[in-house]
Amino acid sequence: MIILALDALDLDLVKKFESKTLMQNEYGQTDISDFNLERTVVLWASFLTGRNMEARIPLKTQWEFKLPTEETFLHFSKTFKAIDFPAFSFKQNHAEERKFLKNYFDEKSAIEEYETAVWKIHEENKTEFLASIGNYNLVMGYFNLADAIGHLSFGVVNKMKDVYNTLEELAKETKNSDDFTLVISDHGMKAIGRYGDHTKNGFYSANRELGLNLPKITDFYNTIRSLQNAT
Amino acid sequence: MAESEAVKQHLHELERKSIALLREAKAQFKSIACLWSTGKDSTATMWLCKRAFFGKIPFPVIHIDTGYKFPEIYEFRDKIAKEWGLNLVIAKNEEALDQGMSPKKGRLDCCTLLKTEALKNLLQKEKYDALILAIRRDEHGIRAKERYYSPRDEQFRWNYADQAAELWDLYVKPSEDFSHMRIHPILHWTELNVWQYVQQENLPINSLYFAKDGKRYRSLGCMPCTVPIPSEANTIEKIVQELETSRTPERAGRSQDKEKAYMMQKLRSLGYM
Question: Which of A15, A32, A79, A92 could disulfide-link A136, Cβ–Cβ 3.0 to 4.6 Å?
Fold first, then answer.
């Protein structure tokens, strides 16, 4: 099983840039309106556990929050690899990215410094993700490119096109796998001028028919569990 | 020294440095032009150019016409261009306008096509090697990093991390690695200095700056993206007084700045910062 966790991937842009591979066989939006705030760590933790984790994860320490494997669907997988996954194996180098983000708003650094840090993490995760496919029962890769670039440049069409094309290429690399492949985002994004703000609708797609209709992010827990049992 | 005398003295010092810079640039570059938005800063800069070159501006004056500017801007531009005998060159991206580009299609894309691309096209055609711009360090944090001589590549990129030190009023033109040079003769001025200078020199000024029905424009941009600020200042004297006590940023009426403030607040609430 392959899970491509793409932070802030938005259905409208997937359609706009005709990212066909990201769409797979079945695709649609998810509904996260049960959550007060569209917090990345909370949403991914909820995806992993099948429960709304909003009350359990404090804002201040959210980036350090880690779930034990037993609480997640990973527990049911014989072997797994979770790359840079929020609330589970989130890497420390995102702190540098957030530092540049703050510096940008404090007008201490240019947008390019922030974007360089974002792309660097993406490339590192991509290498690790692609090398892991085929070696584990479940490979789960987290990529925050659409979210991180989108926050400062969602209104910049060419930049977002680059991001979506990059993610489309990444999805193509997994396309030939016989494994069940789920592409999922935590939330969507909308433009605030040049900037991008979270929306209450994420994205999902699967390479086989799941028959879902506006699922909640917590609904995938059971789907993944049942598929793990079946394999 | 009386306060008014101190202001006069300070403005004289600012003016002296700006004029020296303009003359230096004119001597160093083959094909130079000046950008003029018709706002207070670029109009004051044009006045400095007149001062520097004995009443006549010896290079083209470029106005970037996005097609979305206030009618008062076009009116003021044409009037002053005639009175001051300017060699006015209009940079306009007609192709993008014909294709329907507008702020509704995304403000940044609109700015990129109607401002940046319009200027790029003109530069490519006219081969200017230096542009005079009326930016000031106190306008914006990023502008505070600027130098008086600021090189740009063909894509207008600015490598702020690799800039020459400008010590002892020495402004050096690099021998290579730049497409055109940006010259910033009023970089060291503040918004208040500009208005004091406008007052002192009795410069013509766009009527949009003066309060009407309790509002005035503090910074001029395109119509859809600029909003007036609450103000009763309907004369230059009152604007100067207002600025001496104001704590509101100059560009508070620009949409992009408001969006940035919103986004910063939202990202904080989400725990990003």
Answer: A79
Please tell me which of the candidates A37, A63, A197 has its beta carbon nearest to residue B263: A197
* CATH number for the domain harbouring residue A161: 3.40.720.10
> Which phi and psi angles does B39 have, rounded to 5°?
-70, 175
Whether residue A89 contacts residue A44, with contact meaning beta carbons closer than 8 Å, is answered with no
Task: Please indicate if any CB of chain B lies within 8 Å of the CB of A208.
Answer: no
Shortest Cα distance, chain A CAs vs residue B222, angstroms? 15
pLDDT tens digit sequence for B208-264: 999 999 999 998 989 988 888 889 999 999 999 998 887 666 766 666 666 787 788
According to DSSP, the β-strands at B130-132 and B180-183 are parallel
Please state the domain count of chain A: 1
Complex-level ipTM: 0.88
DSSP-assigned letter for residue B219: S
Residue B92 has a CB neighbour count (10 Å cut-off) of: 16
Q: Tell how strand A80-83 and strand A138-143 pair up.
A: parallel
For chain B, say whether A136 makes contact (Cβ under 8 Å).
no
For chain B, what are the domain ranges? Answer: 3-183, 204-269
Ranges assigned E (strand) in chain B: 32-35, 61-64, 88-91, 130-132, 149-152, 180-183, 215-216, 229-230
For residue B197, give the nearest of B240, B134, B140, B246 by alpha carbon: B240
Taking the CA of residue A157 and the nearest CA in chain B, the distance in Å comes to 7
Which uninterrupted H or E stretch holds A202? strand A201-206
CATH superfamily name and code, B3-183: HUPs (3.40.50.620)
Q: Which residues of chain A have pLDDT under 70?
A: 229-231
Cα dihedral across residues B113, B118, B119, B125: positive or negative: positive
User: Which pTM value belongs to this model?
Assistant: 0.57
Strand partners for A61: none
Please check whether residue B151 is in contact with residue B182, taking contact to mean a CB–CB distance below 8 angstroms: yes
Q: Report the DSSP beta bridge partners of residue A29.
A: A203
A221 C-beta neighbours (distance < 10 Å), count = 18
Considering only CB atoms, which chain A residues are within 8 Å of B255?
193
